[in-house]
Design brief:
seven-stranded mixed sheet, alpha/beta, Rossmann fold, 548 residues, Nucleotidyltransferase, domain 5, 20 helices
């Protein structure tokens, strides 16, 4: 019987009897499997399964002795996996720290998907990994853990960490040294006993593991610091926030200068098949991650990860235990205090091009409540979801004279059945009188389905369809003046927790005339609303008294 077969047999037995001796037999065979190149991946997969199983089992045990036994077994398992599995390394590294002082364990639910991608970078499944997350959620510290894991495994090939910020470089050097140092509270040396610190250079920010070498295991530098001949990235080039802030992001010249420094200096420090990791705020479509995505976005060996501060339900993605991260309420306060563009870039990782921004936030007309009198009409349009990352967009506008108050909307990329139900509910809720669907692609079919559902519920909405042949970008641009002049949007203070409305405003103000747009559904839909509203009023006949 070979190792994979033995592992499967022990797993079956352990699931049946949940015996501590069987558990240790399982761990011993996992350890044996990691020593064999043919079985190492299978062994690690079993180890990951057992680790997750024990993580769930231990807190539920009532027998104190059994709890202690399985807790120790889990520790032994993580020790076995740590050199091979980055997620296990992060857990084992802080095993001796108090729960509230640990970095990774309280954040593991959110950071584990990133840890998996970092492992892919190490295992040569990727050449480039770009990660964009909100500030203060632990992305840089996770990178420091990753550097120490990589350095422990490959101490003889130098890694280069670069940032715009000298204080960050100093802090990174100190944190790495704290993790790998001899008297550390971390368990680095238990995982990598043959990779101790042998040399440090606090002036030039360098740390050598195992042996002194020309280019240290860990090297740190600010971008543009004259690195020729001083540093080399042999295994990994790690770039952390190369843009200093909004002032750089808003300057085409400074963005171009930064790109030139990156290509002309940093890339020249790479040797051989050196990997590349970027962790940054997505300030601009023309920042370094944006340009890399333009070049390598379709490449299987490149991965680009952008995580919103909000989940699909409008709740915080980063509400960690022990009052860490951000509560939903804290994010909402930040969003209320900041302008749309800055919040979207910093916390939602939606780059904003203020130069070339078609709908600047200050240009939008706002209102706090609808006028007291009855509206002249209540209309809507629907820009149906086509494919991929498209969003279904339906704004509802209350007409008062020449003004259109955008009272509510659906802006969603969910499953078709769920989104269609939202469309019906929106039309019924606001008693929309007339609505036009774009009939391109599946729009005609959806319109017919929505019309039937509205009639079935006793609604009054008359739905029509229109096939669009105009160039989308041209349509968006030429109709934007009408939108700015005639459409009023809710003030931020009264939008509340309406995530559809917030998403709509974010997509509208992020549309740029320069560079690519990730989401153009809302500005396209607003152009459609402009054309529909004008078509309804252009045929009006005005009766007046003869002037002579």
């Amino acid at each position: 019987m070979n190792i994979p077969e033995i592992l499967n047999a022990i797993k079956t037995s352990f699931k049946a009897n949940r015996d501590i001796r069987t558990c240790y037999d399982y761990i011993a065979m996992i350890r044996e499997g990691t020593k064999n190149e043919k079985s190492v991946k299978t062994a690690i997969a079993h180890g990951r399964w057992l680790s997750d199983y024990l993580g769930r089992l231990v807190p539920r045990l009532c027998d104190v002795e059994m709890m202690r036994d399985f807790f120790k077994a889990h520790e032994e398992l993580l020790y076995t996996l740590a050199p091979y599995d980055f997620d296990s390394y992060c857990l084992y590294l802080e095993w001796d720290r108090a729960p509230e002082q640990k970095f990774y364990a309280p954040r593991r639910k959110q950071l584990k998907p990133l840890a998996i991608q970092l492992q892919r970078l190490y295992e040569d499944e990727l050449d480039l990994l770009c990660i964009s997350l909100p500030p203060g959620i632990g992305k840089s510290t996770l990178a420091f853990f990753f550097l120490t894991w990589w350095g422990g495994n490959v101490p003889d090939k130098g890694m280069l960490t670069v940032s715009h910020n000298a204080s960050f470089i100093k802090g990174a050097y100190e944190q790495i040294l704290k993790i790998v140092g001899k008297d550390s509270e971390y368990r680095f040396l238990k995982v990598f006993p043959t990779s101790p610190v042998v040399n440090t250079d606090a002036k030039n920010y360098m740390i050598d593991l195992e042996n002194e070498q020309r280019f240290a295991t860990f090297q740190f530098s600010t971008i543009g610091a004259g690195n020729a001949g001083r540093v080399r990235a042999q295994s990994l080039l790690y770039c952390d926030d190369l843009i200093s802030g909004m002032d750089v992001a808003l300057s085409e010249d400074r963005l171009q200068s930064l790109w030139s420094t990156y290509t002309g200096d940093l890339l020249q420090r790479k040797i051989g098949r050196c990997k590349e990791l970027h962790i940054s705020t997505r300030w601009s479509l023309r920042d370094i991650c944006g340009r890399l995505q333009d070049r390598y976005g379709e490449d299987d060996r490149a991965e680009f990860i952008e995580v919103d501060c909000y989940d699909a339900d409008g709740n915080s993605n980063f509400d960690y235990p022990y009052n860490l991260g951000y509560t939903t309420e804290a994010l909402q306060r930040l969003e209320q205090d900041m302008d749309e563009a800055t919040f979207s870039a910093l916390y939602r990782n939606r780059p904003i091009e203020r130069e070339g921004q078609l709908y600047a936030e200050v240009e939008l007309r706002r209102y706090f409540e609808l006028p007291e009198n009855e509206p002249d009409a209540i209309i809507a349009i629907c820009d149906t979801k086509d494919k991929g990352k498209d969003f279904e967009f339906m704004p509802v506008a209350y007409q008062y004279g020449n003004d259109y108050y955008l009272e509510d909307c659906v802006c969603n990329d969910g499953k078709p059945e769920a989104v269609e139900a939202m469309l019906v509910n929106l039309l019924m809720k606001h008693k929309v009188q007339m609505c036009q669907f774009e009939s391109n692609s599946a729009g005609g079919r959806i319109a017919e389905k929505i019309q039937g559902a509205v009639k079935e519920r006793g609604g009054r909405t008359k739905i029509t369809t229109k096939y669009t042949t105009a160039n989308k970008e041209t349509k968006i641009i030429v109709n934007s003046p009408w939108v700015k002049e005639h459409v009023l949007f809710k003030d931020k203070s009264v939008v509340g927790n309406n995530r559809e409305y917030k998403r709509m405003l974010s997509f509208l103000t992020s549309y740029t005339l320069k560079g690519k747009n990730a989401h153009d559904d809302v500005p396209d839909g607003m152009a459609m609303l402009a054309l529909y509203a004008q078509s309804l009023t252009s045929n009006n006949i005005e009766v007046f008294k003869r002037p002579f």
